[in-house]
Amino acid sequence: MWYVCWGTSVTSGNRLTHVWDASAYLIAGDEPTLIDCGSTEGYAALKRDLKSFGYAPKDIKRVIGTHGHWDHLSAMAKLQEESDAQLFIHEADRRQVETGDPALTAAYLYNKPFPPARVDGLLTHGDVLDINGYLFEVYHTPGHSPGSVSLRTEFHGLKLLIAADTIWGGYHPRIRSSLEDWEKSLDRLLELEFDVMTTGHCPPALIFDAKRHVYEARQQLGVYWNPWFKPFHSSFAATILKGLLESVVQAVPFPFRPIARARPARRAHRTSVVCSTAWRPIYQRDNSLGFTEIRLPVRRAFLARGLGSGTAQ
Hints:
The protein is an alpha/beta fold and about 325 residues long. The protein has two domains: about 1-220, Metallo-beta-lactamase, Chain A, CATH 3.60.15.10; about 235-305, no CATH class. The protein has eight helices and 15 strands. Strands 1-2-3-4-5-6-7 form a seven-stranded mixed beta sheet. A five-stranded mixed beta sheet has the order 8-9-10-11-12, with no helix packed on it. A three-stranded mixed beta sheet has the order 14-13-15, with helices on one face.
């Protein structure tokens, strides 16, 4: 857990709970409140972080949802199983959260389900939420999703904007993103006064010179789209490797033999498929994640003839 302001700590995020998690914030006090709660994949780590601050899931009284996407709120159903926490979200994103719609919640990007969660109250533009003595102003900022909201508060004279995915969030019609709405939302934020901000996927720290960052986001919005965005759950190299292995297994006319001899891995950061007698790599890729070699016992002559032809000798 990381402190970002007086009474406010980051409890979830891609550097704290799970690489896919959005940032979530704990407002400590008599009624502990979360702003977003992260994903199902990071829920166990979220509980760990809450415990480090002296709280358990059963202590959480409410969750303020910035919008209804998997990385921000899919842990809500699990939290509600362990607590009486109430969920507040904008009406425009309510249905997808209550039904767990895989497209509208962007769950398809992660190949994980969004467990339907109960929505207990609605956020509207202009609301002022009193959370443990701090006042949070609600601004409806659609664009990334129809029900996206941003929150503004003040801690001891420091004005904080919690922009969530209104800044640097992804765009796709499948999740009902709207470029026109997004432009208006960024213009709305630029009219506000704030000193620092956080976004949905930033390091667990405050962003200073915040107004300039919002202005730059407004200038960049919609300039050029990337149609080749890779789903978070996909690893294309792993898919290629899996297909190659399956092709070899189907083609080999004899049971694999145990590897008779071995040699040290060439380098700890390479991934290789090699044959048992020649140890010749048939697929190799640099990988910075530290994978070691994968060795497949196949005879040299079989490889020389090709994966789909000839008889191994």
